[in-house]
Design goal:
The protein has 407 residues and is α/β, with parallel strands linked by helices. It contains 13 helices and 16 strands.
Length: 407
C-alpha cells in the first residue's frame, strides 16, 4: 500500500495473521506458520526497498524477473571477497543491484575539487578484493567517464585483485566506425582508455553494436547482456490487460534487424506464435536528422512493437510511428534499453501517436517531464545485472541466461 511515496504493511493483513496464529492449535504448527510469515515479510521488505518510486507495472515486472533471474539463492561464500562500488552516474541502480545480491555497497567519496576536477577516495580496504564498479557513462558523459577511469586507476593502485566494470550504458558507442573523413572511432578509444587503466572485465547492457566487444583485447572479456527479456516480460504481463494480438516486431533501421529478430523469436516461443517482423529503412542527412523512411513488410491491423537499443531525441521514433500509422498499424509500442530523452524528446513523445515507450533504468530519470509522462515506463535492469554478477562469482555460464526460455 503506497502512501505519499512510502510503502507500509497493510494493518488488516497483520491483524488477520495474528488471529490465525493465535488460533493455531499446535506449537509446531505455530512455529511453521511463524517461519513462513518471517519469509513473507522479508520478501515484502525487499520489494518495499526496491520498488520505492516505481509504478505498479514496473513492480510487477521486477517481481517476475526476480523469480526468473534470481531463482537460485546466491552462495554467501562466493561473495566474501566481493566489493561493490559506484560513482555518481546511477546510484539508485547500484543500490538495487546490491539489494538483490544482499551485498552492501562499499564506502567511497566521489566529489569535485573547486575547479571541477574529480575527487575520489575509496574508504573501504580493497586489497585482494574482487571489485565490481557500477558506472554507466550516461550524460553528463565526460564527467561519468572520467569518474570511471579514475575509479579503475584508484582500485589498481590500491591492489584490488580483479576489477570488473559494469557499464549499463556505454557512452560514445555510436561512434563505432568512420562515417566520414577525419573523424574518430570514439567507441574504440574509450575501450583503449579502460583497458589502459587496468580493467579485468567489462559488463555492458545492449551495446549499440556487437563489434564494440572486439575493441577490447583478449585479456579483457566483455559480456554484452541482452535486455530483451525485460521487454518481453512487460509485454507478457500487459498482453491480457491491453488485449494485444496480431503482433509485429519492427526494427527502426537495418542495423537493428538482428535485435528485432531475437525479440520476435522470443515472442514466438512463448505464447505469441504468429508474431511478424518488419523493418524501416531510413536515410539520414546528418546525425539525429532523418531525410526519409520506407517500410519493408506488412503492418496493417497489427499491434506494433518497435525494438531499438536507445532513444535520444525521439525524432526517428516519432517519424517511424507516423509511417506505421499511415500503413494501417493499430497500436504502437516501443521498447528501447536506454532512454536518453535529450532535447525535445519528451515533448515529441507526448505529442505523438505512440501508445507506450518502455525503457530500462540503465540511465536514471533526468527530468520531471519524463517522470510525469504517462507514455514512458522505466523497468529495472538490476535483476539481469545481479544475476550476471552471481554467475561470474559462482563460475556459471552467462550465455545460458539468454538461451533458456522464460518461465
Amino acid at each position: 500500500r503506497r502512501v505519499h511515496g512510502e510503502y507500509s504493511l497493510n494493518e488488516s493483513w497483520m491483524s488477520s495473521f495474528w488471529k490465525s496464529f493465535q488460533a493455531f492449535p499446535k506449537v509446531i504448527g505455530r512455529r511453521a506458520l511463524f517461519a513462513g510469515a518471517v519469509t513473507l515479510v522479508s520478501y515484502h521488505s525487499f520489494y518495499l526497498r526496491a520498488s520505492k518510486g516505481k509504478t505498479e507495472e514496473s513492480i510487477d515486472v521486477d517481481r517476475a524477473l526476480r523469480g526468473r533471474f534470481m531463482s537460485k539463492k546466491p552462495n554467501p561464500d562466493a561473495y566474501k571477497n566481493v566489493t561493490l562500488l559506484t560513482g555518481n552516474a546511477n546510484i539508485p541502480l547500484a543500490q538495487e543491484i546490491a539489494e538483490y545480491l544482499d551485498v552492501p555497497l562499499g564506502k567511497i567519496n566521489v566529489g569535485r575539487f573547486p575547479d571541477g576536477e574529480v575527487n575520489i577516495q575509496i574508504i573501504d580496504n580493497v586489497r585482494g578484493k574482487d571489485v565490481y564498479v557500477i558506472q554507466p557513462t550516461c550524460p553528463p558523459v565526460n564527467d561519468n567517464l572520467v569518474e570511471l577511469l579514475l575509479l579503475v586507476s584508484t582500485l589498481r593502485r590500491a591492489s584490488a585483485n580483479k576489477i570488473n566494470v559494469i557499464v549499463p550504458y556505454y557512452g560514445y558507442s555510436r561512434q563505432d566506425r568512420k562515417t566520414a573523413p577525419r573523424v574518430p572511432i570514439a567507441a574504440a578509444d574509450v575501450a583503449r582508455l579502460l583497458e589502459t587503466m587496468g580493467v579485468d572485465r567489462v559488463i555492458a547492457v545492449d551495446l549499440h553494436c556487437g563489434q564494440i566487444q572486439g575493441f577490447f583485447g583478449p585479456r579483457v572479456p566483455v559480456d554484452n547482456l541482452e535486455a530483451n527479456l525485460i521487454g518481453y516480460q512487460y509485454i507478457l504481463n500487459q498482453s491480457k490487460k491491453l488485449d494485444m494480438h496480431n503482433l509485429t516486431v519492427i526494427s527502426p533501421d537495418a542495423g537493428g534487424v538482428n535485435r528485432a529478430k531475437k525479440f520476435q523469436e522470443l515472442l514466438r516461443q512463448n505464447g505469441f506464435p504468429d508474431t511478424g517482423l518488419a523493418m524501416i529503412i531510413k536515410h539520414r542527412e546528418v546525425a539525429s536528422k532523418v531525410a526519409g523512411m520506407h517500410l519493408v513488410g506488412q503492418v496493417k491491423g497489427s499491434d506494433i512493437i518497435i525494438i531499438d537499443d536507445m532513444i535520444d531525441t525521439a525524432g526517428t521514433l516519432c517519424e517511424a510511428v507516423n509511417q506505421l500509422k499511415k500503413h494501417g498499424a493499430n497500436r504502437v509500442f516501443a521498447f528501447a534499453t536506454h532512454g536518453l530523452f535529450n532535447g525535445p524528446a519528451i515533448e515529441r513523445i507526448n505529442n505523438s501517436e505512440i501508445d507506450k515507450i518502455i525503457v530500462t533504468n540503465s540511465i536514471p530519470t533526468r527530468n520531471q517531464q519524463e517522470a510525469e509522462s504517462d507514455k514512458i515506463v522505466r523497468l529495472s535492469c538490476a535483476p539481469l545485472i545481479a544475476e550476471c554478477i552471481r554467475r561470474i562469482q559462482e563460475n556459471e555460464s552467462i550465455s545460458s541466461l539468454f538461451t533458456s526460455q522464460p518461465k
